[in-house]
Amino acid sequence: MAPYLESVTSFADVPVTDAGVDTVKFLEASDGLVGLFDLLGSTAFSVVQSDLRGNIVKVRTRYEATPQQSATLESLVENEKAEKKRTATEGLMWLLRGLSFTCKALQNAQANKDQELAQNFTKSYEDTLKKFHNFVVKGIFTVAMKACPYRKDFYEKLASDPSGGPPATQDKLNTELDKWLAALSSIVTRMENFYEKDGHNKGF
């Protein structure tokens, strides 16, 4: 098996057309991002993983119920507008926020190689999720940020081959990670604009 990023669906491989973001591939890539938190090796992040997984389930459940009307994320949200409860629309909104948090944290790590992950994740939290959280949840996330592993250990896990083969070089890892994050950032920005422009984030 290849190192982690090659073992999951990359956001760079999620088809994005004029019609929208491919729902199935997006959910597969989101599953891969959730697994990334296992590499952080702290139970403190279980709350983040649980939140992401729960929102993925909400979107996937809607897709499976209405596959023809939900081929893209945009069509899934548009299709659910007529429902009394827009469970998938709200779930996707929170999933995008969680993905944005993770994306910005790792982009911070890539841009500031002399900083530890705790700093990178804390800054990202302050820039993304913090404004949406109450006092209790803020406290939980503060604990999680402090529990980040050392940067060196995380990057070694990211590069290692679980099957025992040679690890990815730092250059290869940086190239793959930057590509993965750029695609994720582009999708999140696109969907955030879609929600804002058409008012899909209203009522939650």
- Contiguous helical run count: 9
Q: Structural class, please?
A: mainly alpha
Going by CATH, the homologous superfamily would be Glycolipid transfer protein
Proportion of residues in β-strands: under 5%
Concise overview:
This protein has helices at residues 4-7, 23-40, 46-65, 73-80, 87-111, 117-127, 135-146, 151-159, 170-198, and strands spanning 16-17, 20-21. The protein is an all-alpha fold.
Structural summary, described in words:
This protein is 67% helix and 2% strand. With 204 residues, the protein is mainly alpha-helical. It has one domain: Glycolipid transfer protein, GLTP (Orthogonal Bundle). Strands 1-2 form a two-stranded antiparallel ribbon. Helix 2 (23-40) runs antiparallel to helix 3 (46-65), helix 3 (46-65) packs across helix 5 (87-111) and helix 6 (117-127) packs antiparallel against helix 7.
Secondary structure layout plus pairing:
Elements: H1 4-7, E1 16-17, E2 20-21, H2 23-40, H3 46-65, H4 73-80, H5 87-111, H6 117-127, H7 135-146, H8 151-159, H9 170-198
Helix pairs in contact: 2-3, 3-5, 5-6, 5-9, 6-7
Features:
204 residues, mainly alpha, Glycolipid transfer protein, GLTP, two-stranded antiparallel sheet, 9 helices, 2 strands, transport, Glycolipid_transfer_prot_dom, GLTP_sf
